[in-house]
Amino acid sequence: MSVLHDFFTVFLQPQLFLLVGLGTFAGVYVGAIPGLSVTMAVSILISFTFSWDVYPAISLMIGIYMGGVYGGSRTAILLNIPGAPSAIATAMDGYPMAKRGEAGTAIGVTTVMSFFGGLVGIAVLALAAPFVSDFALKFQPRDYMLLAVLGILLVGSLSSGSLIKGIFSGALGIGIGAVGMDPLTFTQRFTFDIPLLTQGISFIAVMIGMFGVSEALLQLHNIDLPAVRQKIDKIVPSFGTVKKHLPLSLQTSTIGVLIGALPGTGGDIAALMAYDHAKRVTKNPERKFGEGAIEGLVAPETANNAAVGGAFIPMMTLGIPGDAVTAIMIGALFIHGLNPGPMLMIDQPHMFWFIVGALVTANFFMLLFGLTGIKLFTKIVEIPRAFLIPLIMLLSIVGAYAVNNSITDVYWMLGFGVFGYFMRHYGYPLGPVILGVILSRLLDDNWRRAIISEREDLGRFFGGIFSSPLSTVLLITVVLIFVSQTPLWTKAKARLFKKEATE
Amino acid sequence: MDADFRGDADHHDGTSDATPGGYADKRRPGEAVFALLMTIGSAVLLWNAYGISGFEALSSPGSVPMATSAVMLISALVILAKTLRMKTAENESLLKDIIPVVVMIMIVLLIAFGILLTPLGFIPTAALFLIISIKLLARRGWPMTLAVALGSLVVIWLVFRIIFTVLLPSGIVPEGEMIQYFRNIFASGAA
Q1: pLDDT tens, A273-296?
Q2: Annotated region Disordered: where (chain B) (predicted)?
């Protein structure tokens, strides 16, 4: 009974309900405007909602997350510019449809399918998370440590090509997170005897710098890119179209939830994998993939929205983020004095059910805003970047300042902004940095707990790992990701493929 | 996705060329210097991490920092070696593709914003920043520039100062009195 009550918290409090709606609305547009990203919006918002209660703050952020994952598809279809990374696959068939004058149909199908995928994701979250958290109670500190390493590695290896740069970024993030006073022994770490550094570096400053300012600086390269107008007519898709693609959408939603639930992998990877899956299983598409196949829209859009629910599973049950946005959400929960992990599910189950309720609400709002407001949408997307970029920068500065009322944080933010700008230019992924910063403490604590409980003996530590199936699997996965990047693996693969080719 | 795709996941600017992320087989201008700086930085961090508690114990406060900075150093060295082996992308130059003048100006403006924020206060600093940067970027007439800059500043100030109750340095502007003035308007409106 109390579960139901917690679930309906959002519906019973008009203020929360409206905030979710507002967030979703903002998210759709933030996601749709190229140059604004959901990660950017959520990281800036953490600092603004800092003084709020936790429910309203989370409501707003969930709305933005859900809306943003969907919103990216709009510009992908209309302009061939994915508004968010999760919409990269959507552009492949969405844009060809728009070129044929079927932009309305494409947007309609996308919206309904995103809604469907979102629901599947949330349902899995609601059903699976309590089990996962029960299971997580049995996790040893070493498992947490391995999971954290795995999460950072997965972000590094999957979200961009160069794993070695991903590893560097992840380690850098852990290092940034370690700056300051060690919480257990009060030893100073990476402070270089500078008093300013003893307090550590505010992770919000790092986030806003890396996702706000660096992105804005990068957008300066495309300041003169013209806005494109498109004519859109009928949007709401026919029931027949939806029904026809239901089997496929169920499969791709499942892919989405699973990928989303893996620590470190989010909607962008889910969407690409689902697209690939659709290509393989669709025997007779009405049109070829890449030339406007509806299946090519259904697959990525169900998957990326299903991944939202999936991403919350490790976040809520283990405190390990499913992607960059959930990493930032974890930061938000920290700030509000909550500690995501199995204990949160047990101590404060209402928080979990509240989040599930808010996700459902956001999903319905997404459907509503997705099928309406096209006129307004075309206007907003045409706002020149020359106006937007200074505003993003201003918001970033205000956001960095607002958390601690400290000008030092503004300088950190600017420093990481410029640093992140160069990292982006040279192909270093930023996601692992944020995951590293967020997971630094968890990794450090659990490593020390694990090794102390094994009496500082590495032999016993590895003995412990191999005595537990879970730890063994985690360790093997981590090792495999490393091995897959060494020349040894490439050679082995080449040999294998050669064999296949000759056979 | 191409296994060698080095682009950033947030690559959604619509340009299919190298910005951002670069090429799989070519070196961008300044990339080698950046990789070298990362290597030196990692080495300094490793040295510093060693200074925290040395090899005292596996559970010492310095063990994770040492492990991470060692990983950083190793990966930075690998990246450096890979980068040095690549050929330079000939169609790019540092000033045109990596840090064009407009980016440098914006960075300077941002730093100036930070320096002026406390003494001058949020409203004048933000107004200056928005007017200069919008004028510079949009290259529109003064009326348009001023309207957009000041109009959005008012909205931002109202939203963040009043709805989000974010405290910003007031500096030379009597912000408290202004807020009281607004409160009075709303109070008398409600009465």
Answers
A1: 888 888 888 877 778 777 778 888
A2: 1-24
CB within 8 Å: B72 and A168 = yes
| Domain-wise residue ranges, chain A | 14-453
Q: Are residues B35 and B81 in the same domain?
A: yes
Same domain, B135 and B158: yes
Boundary residue ending a domain (B71, B94, B117) = B94
**ipTM given for this complex:** 0.84
- Beta-bridged to residue B87, according to DSSP, are B26
- Phi, psi at A431, each rounded to 5°: -55, -50
Do B42 and B56 have their domain in common? yes
CA-based nearest residue in chain B for residue A223: B137
**B90, part of any domain:** yes
Model confidence pLDDT, tens digit, residues A123-179? 999 998 888 888 877 788 888 888 888 878 777 665 555 778 888 988 999 999 888
B31 vs A contacts (CB less than 8 Å): 425-426
Assess B19–A contact: CB distance below 8 Å, yes or no. Answer: yes
Interface of A with B in 182-241 (CB under 8 A): 182, 184-185, 187-190, 192, 211, 213, 215, 217-223, 225
Residues B84 and B54 grouped into a single domain: yes
* Single pTM value for the model: 0.79
Give the DSSP letter string of A440-499. HHHHHHHHHHHHHHTTT-HHHHHHHHHHSHHHHHHHHHHHHHHHTTSHHHHHHHHHHHHH
> Which structural domain, as residue segments, surrounds residue B179?
100-190
Same domain, B105 and B74: no
| CB-based burial, A35-46: b 16+ in 10 Å, e otherwise | bbbbbbbbbbbb
Number of domains in chain B: 2
Mean pLDDT of chain A: 81
